[in-house]
Amino acid sequence: MPFDGLVMAAVRKELESELLDGRIDRIYQPSPLEIHLLIHRPGTRARLLLSAHPENARVHLTGRVRENPPSPPVFCMVLRKHLEGGRIRGIQQRGLDRVLVFQVQSYNDLGEPSLKELVCEIMGRHSNIILVNPGTKQIIDAIKRYTYAVSRHREVLPGREYIPPPEQHKLNPLELKEEEFRQALLEAPLETPVAAILQRILDGISQVMAREILYRAGLAQDLILDHCGEHELVVLWQAIQQMAGAIARGEFQPSLVLDEQGRPREFAAFDLTHFHPLTRRQGTMNTLVDLFYTAREEEQDYQSKKQSLLTVVRREMGRLSQKLSLQEESLAKAERADEYRIFGELIMANLYRLEKGLSEVTLENFYDPGKKMVIISLDPRLKPVQNAQAYFKKYTKAKQTREETGNRIEQTQRELEYLKGVETAIIQATTVPELVEIREELEEQGYLKPANREKKREPEKPRPLVFTSSDGFTILVGRNNKQNDYLTLRLARGEDVWLHTRDIPGSHVLIRTGGRTVPETTLAEAASLAAYFSRARESQNVPVDYTLRRNVHKPRGARPGYVIYTGQRTLTVNPDQELVERLKA
Question: Are 511 and 549 in contact (CB under 8 A)?
């Protein structure tokens, strides 16, 4: 993980200047594995975030305020009891381990001074936040409790002795001797990448920092030990010594690497020069860590919400597909309705030749131009006229079933098409607010139970995407059914041009004309946008209908996003991502 021991050292150095002697005013636990401490010093207030999340564990100052649960969890109440009103007297890091200890001077129930330690262990899935009584070395409580059944090394339970995490037996770069370094390096198998060896033997070094050391030494990042000679060993040692000197002096150079889309990719306590083709952002270590994990958690939240909605929609689509299959099977059986009628009429036409007790009869089918003979099954317990009446009843029932099943099939197909459109909107959604709109729609349509929202947020106006055509016309694109309805039924004017992929789920697209004639270039660009923001994004030669908005109507009681239209013409276009980027307003 990028939050290595060097990052912890840089964070600790900044926290000492920001938090020492600060008073802990409030403590919150917005999620099961995250604690926020509001700390006050004369003229300043800070929010300290402590996380024991298996993927996002870290310690840093944050500007992000999270919503808290209605009632605080037990661990939060314990922290409030022992730490609220206390002052931070020390912040310690053990070597370059990812363990940070906050020493808090507070008061017990008798008003006597009482020192507590809040231990933050940042170690991936083994991360924890533990409140310890330093005098007795006993655990008061922890955000994660577990027994020896989980860890053979120690128990983390109230009343147990606090045992630090097991030693990693790595070399401290600040105390490292050259011979000691060479020996540890050369003990590895010859085919091992040097970056992996550095990470394994040096305390506080992550994989990204190991690659940075190689880069600063002028060596290839994929260098293996077998290709190391005296020159490689010397320049490696010099690069490590330079970094160790900067650590000892507290001269960190926090760096955040952004990818091509401007999203945080890596961070470190030193400038990551080996990412030179990408943008690198400098700042305080706490600020950069906060930016990285805020973006990471937003992406994780987005992916979680997206996958949750896709699961619901695809489950419903699977159910409807099965239902449709059964309905079509039932319709196929009902298609014999005319055959039952013919059997009944043939029996009635031949009553004079039939008698009770027959199990079948072969008669000439005068409805068949070929005058073919047909075998008709009979119930021997019934008279011929009763057998005819039985076939007429089957005919009436089958005819009714055929009509009802046909209507049900049509309804099922419409619902399936609706869900396909919702699925497309989910797949193409790029932000959490878009997913929230889709979730609200699914709640309104009865596919999801309404979420228990403690605070009802004010409904926001949908915000369709805005593009500008090569001819200067504004083109609006709905990203989901709520935006589609808002775009078509609220924003659009009668003279605007409305577009939609033909018989393919997708976005409503609108060209704001202002009464002007729309050039063919703008029409083609809008049609390409409609194809791109549809289920046919990966296809070619996509048919797109266009008509004036005044020709578009929504039937009463129709589902969100469903409209009917007349007077349309059709263009055949290809989706074009480059065009989308070029026309973005």
Answer: no
User: Collapsing DSSP states into helix, strand and coil, what is residue 561?
Assistant: coil
Contact between 87 and 24 under an 8 Å Cβ cutoff? The reply is yes
- Indicate the SS3 state at residue 531: helix
Q: Which of 523, 532, 540 is nearest to 471 (CA)?
A: 523
Backbone φ, ψ for residue 436 (5° rounding): -65, -40
∠ at Cα 38 (250, 40), nearest 5°?
75
Predicted confidence at residue 402, as pLDDT, reads: 79
pTM: 0.79
Question: What does each C-alpha distance from 312 to 29, 316, 440 come to in angstroms?
Answer: 30, 6, 13
Tokens encoding 273: 């020069």
pLDDT tens digits, 450-478: 876 545 555 678 889 999 999 999 999 99
Average pLDDT over residues 289-294: 96
**Torsions phi, psi for 294 (to 5 deg):** -65, -45
Indicate if the pLDDT at residue 433 is higher than 60.
yes
Q: b or e along 12-23 (b: 16 or more beta carbons within 10 Å of the residue's beta carbon)?
A: bbbbeebbeebb
Is 363:373 a contact under the CB 8 Å cutoff?
A: yes
DSSP 3-state of 453:
coil
DSSP string of 68-120, one letter each residue: PPSS--HHHHHHHHHHTT-EEEEEEE-TTSSEEEEEEEEE-TTS-EEEEEEEE
> CA 76 to CA 28: how far, in whole Å?
6
pLDDT tens for 302-321 read 999 999 999 999 999 999 99
CA distances from 403 to 230, 334, 342, 406, 427 (A): 88, 9, 19, 5, 36
User: Nearest to residue 225, comparing CAs of 256, 247, 201, 248?
Assistant: 201
Q: What is the pLDDT of residues 166-198, one digit of tens each?
A: 988 899 999 999 999 999 999 999 999 999 999
Give the count of beta carbons closer than 10 Å to the beta carbon of residue 128.
Answer: 20
Number of neighbours of residue 166 by Cβ within 10 angstroms: 11
